Q: What sequence folds into this?
């Protein structure tokens, strides 16, 4: 069952998956598609044609501008902004007001399980890799690798995170999740989860 708060605005052409909830004063524009069990918080904005996978959370006052694409299980923190204009201007060089035909929207792509912290800004076009974490207040201007942990303005990678979200610890040449014990291997700046998923010291 879909829930839409009385003060929310959901365009007629928008598609909401089973179990999705749209809370007070949120707006979901035309042709947006939200998967199952998504949550759109108070005052959040989902732009025209935006795509959300299943189990996404868009927290209060977040702005997700078209043509953003969010995979399953993406977390968008409070007041996050996903931009869509490379060279923003209100007017053209001759002083005339810009219209939809005067610029081309570019989007932010966020892969499965990634999390964007509160008040972070992702400046399109960028890709946030699967299970990556963007720290609160960061400004992302370059692609973030899978499992990457980025902080700062502009954002830079300072470590790796596992699927549970905690920063990984390097032990014996592998990266270990302190919460689950899952292990990861880094090669040439790319992190992948080990197939066996076992913690260091576990019996083979």
A:
């Amino acid at each position: 069952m879909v829930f839409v708060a009385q003060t929310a605005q959901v365009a007629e052409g928008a598609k909401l998956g089973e179990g999705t909830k749209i809370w007070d004063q949120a707006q979901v524009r035309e042709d947006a598609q939200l998967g199952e069990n998504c949550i759109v918080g108070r005052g959040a904005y989902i732009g025209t044609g935006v795509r959300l996978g299943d189990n996404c959370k868009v927290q209060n006052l977040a702005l997700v501008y078209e043509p953003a694409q969010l995979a399953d299980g993406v977390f968008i923190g409070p007041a996050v902004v996903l931009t869509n204009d490379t060279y923003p201007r209100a007017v053209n060089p001759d002083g005339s007001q810009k219209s939809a035909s005067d610029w081309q929207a570019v989007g932010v792509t966020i892969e499965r399980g990634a999390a964007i912290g509160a008040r972070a800004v992702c400046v399109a076009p960028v890709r946030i890799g699967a299970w990556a974490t963007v720290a609160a207040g960061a400004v992302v201007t370059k692609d973030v690798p899978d499992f990457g942990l980025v902080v700062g303005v502009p954002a830079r990678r300072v470590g790796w995170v596992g699927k549970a979200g905690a920063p990984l610890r390097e032990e014996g040449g592998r990266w270990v999740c302190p919460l689950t014990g899952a292990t990861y291997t880094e090669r040439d700046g790319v992190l992948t989860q080990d197939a066996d998923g076992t913690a260091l010291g576990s019996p083979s």
Summary: Residues 199-204 have pLDDT under 50 and may be disordered. The chain has two domains: 3-161, 163-204. The chain has no helices and 26 strands. Residues 174 and 185 are 5 Å apart (CA to CA).
